[in-house]
Amino acid sequence: MVETSVNRKPERTAVLLLSGGLDSTTTAAMARADGYSIFALTFRYGQRHSHEIDCAVRIAAAMGVKRHEIIDIDLGRLGGSALTGDIPVPKNRANAEMESGIPLTYVPARNTIFLAYALGWAEVLNANDIFIGVNAVDYSGYPDCRPEFIAAFETMANLATRATVQGQRLTIHTPLLHLSKQQIIERGLALGVDYGLTSTCYDPSANGIACGACDACQLRRKGFRNAGLTDPAPYASNEA
Amino acid sequence: MVETSVNRKPERTAVLLLSGGLDSTTTAAMARADGYSIFALTFRYGQRHSHEIDCAVRIAAAMGVKRHEIIDIDLGRLGGSALTGDIPVPKNRANAEMESGIPLTYVPARNTIFLAYALGWAEVLNANDIFIGVNAVDYSGYPDCRPEFIAAFETMANLATRATVQGQRLTIHTPLLHLSKQQIIERGLALGVDYGLTSTCYDPSANGIACGACDACQLRRKGFRNAGLTDPAPYASNEA
Fold first, then answer.
1. Under a CB-based contact definition with an 8 Å cutoff, are residues B202 and B91 in contact?
2. Could you give the CA distance from residue A143 to residue B165 in angstroms, rounded to a whole number?
C-alpha cells in the first residue's frame, strides 16, 4: 500500500524575526505548527545586554529552525533610545503610565529595519512569508507594533523586490497581533514552548536574571499571573 | 540699519543616502542648494570594492555635510547579488538587454534597508526630510528605484515612528526621479559638482579605475556623451 501524506501540510519557507523573548518564541512555535520551515533572524543591535541573543540561539536550536542568522547592526551609534543608549531603563511604572505615550525604550525605526532585512533574506530564500511577534494589545506603545504600520510595510514590500515585481506575493504574518499576554502564553504552552528559555527583561543582570520591574517584566509577570501559571524566569525582585 | 535675511532659506536638517556615485552626489548638491543641512549616510554592505566608500568620504567633505556616518551591514551574508556575492558583474551588455528585466547586480531589498536606517537616523535628529538619488529613467531595472516603491515607503514611514505618530510628516525626496543621466550631469555641473570625485563602476580595479563596460559605466558614459562633455573618471577600457 502506498503511503499518502494528505494530512501533512506542505512545508513552506518563512523568515522569522527571533529576539529571544516570549512573543517571538511563541510566534516561532505557531509558524512551525502551521507547517513552515523557519529561517530565524536575530539582531545584535547595540542593546544593553547579550543575554537575549544567547536565549535566541538556544530557542532556535530547541525549535529546530533550518538556519539561524545573527546580524550585527549598530543602532546605538545613531542614538535615541534607552535600549541602546545611556538613558536609564524606566522601572516600576504604574499601569496608566505604561499605557500612555511612547516609552524611552522605543528604538527609532527598529521594526522597519528588522523587517527590511527579513524582506531581503526572504527574497534570497525565495520565501513569501515573514513572521514577526508584534502585539497591539500589550504592545507598550510602540508605533511600529501597530496593525496599520504592518499593513503599510507589507504594501511597500510588495513593490520593493524582484520577486514581487515578478508576481510573487509577500505576506507579513503577525499571529500575536490581537492576543493578550495571557493568551500568548496559553497558546505557547499548548504548543510545548519552554518559556524558561526566553528572555523578556529590558535590563537583566550579567548572568541573565530579570529585573522584574521594567515595563517588559511587568507585562510578562501579569500575563503569567492572569493565566494562573508560574513564570519559570528567575527575577531579582519579588512580584509588585 | 538692521540686516535682514529674507533671501536666505531657513536651514533644515536632512538625512541623505550617499553612495559615492554620480546620482547621490548630485542629489547632495541639490539638497544643499535647497538650504538643507545634510547628514550623510553611507553603507559598507559587503560590496565588492571599498573605492566608492573612499569617494563618499571625499564627497562628504567637499560638500560640507554636517556629519557623515558609514554603517557596516553585511548584506553579502544573506547572498543573492552580483554586487555582494560571487556572481560575476555582467559586462558590455547591449542597450536592449540593459533595459529588459532586473540585472544580477540587484541587491535584495537594498533600498528598503538603506531607507529604514535613514528613517531611524532622521527621527533621532528630529529631521523630517530624507534624500535618495533614485532614478526611474536610466534606472537599470531595479524595483526599489521606482516611484511607486518610494511612495509606499513614505506612507509606511509616516506610520512607523514616534515623530510621525506625534504629528510630524516625513518626506522622501527624490529630485532625480524623472531626469535622464544627461540632465542629472548638467544639473550637477551647474551646482559645481566635481564628478572626478565620484565612483560609478560596479567593478573597479583596486586603485579605483572604472571598468567602462558594466551597466553603470555604460549609462554614465552615455550621459556625458549626450551632454557633449568629457567624463573626468579614469576608465580601463575605451568608449564602446
1. no
2. 7
**CA A220 – CA B155 distance, rounded (Å):** 32
Measured distance CA(A208)–CA(A42) in Å, rounded: 18
pLDDT, tens digit (0-9, with 9 covering 90-100), for A180-227: 999 999 999 999 999 999 988 888 887 889 989 888 888 899 999 999
CA distance B150 to chain A (A): 8
Find which of B69, B165, B166, B172 to mutate to test the A interface (most A CBs within 10 Å of its CB): B165
CA distance B226 to A224: 69
Quote the CATH superfamily of domain B12-226: HUPs (3.40.50.620)
Where along chain B do its domains lie?
12-226
- Residue from the list B69, B72, B160 with its beta carbon closest to the beta carbon of A143: B160
Rounded distance between C-alpha atoms, residue B43 and residue B62, angstroms? 19
SS3 B4: coil
pTM for this predicted structure: 0.88
Q: Across the beta sheet with B36-44, what order do the strands follow? A: B67-72, B36-44, B12-17, B129-131, B171-173
B120, B152, B159: residue with CB nearest A78: B120
Is this prediction's ipTM beyond 0.85?
Answer: yes
Instruction: Report the DSSP beta bridge partners of residue A211.
Output: none
Task: Please judge whether B161 and A71 are an interchain contact, meaning their C-beta atoms are less than 8 angstroms apart.
Answer: no
